[in-house]
Amino acid sequence: MASQSRRGGLSLPDRRGSSKQEPNIMDKIINSQIVSKGKQAASDTVSVAKKLLKSTGKAAWIAGTTFLILAVPLIIEMDREQQLNELELQQQSLLGAPPVGPAPPK
Q: Which pTM was predicted?
């Protein structure tokens, strides 16, 4: 049984009973007040960005649907009116009627 405990040929000191070690530089940096404030600021920034994106998306949806419901039919109707006016002008010119325009100055 004594040969089983020396398999690797190198024995490391037992850490169970050792006292606390001094924190290394990385532990000091990670646990510093500046880093914790930076993490908090980053977290706050992310939450504000999420809220902003959510509200921007809602506003874009409202603007888009409003445009489709109100502006598109108006644009279509204005186009029809323009085509009708052009057709009337074309018919008048074919029939020989004088073109309708502003009154000539006297």
A: 0.42
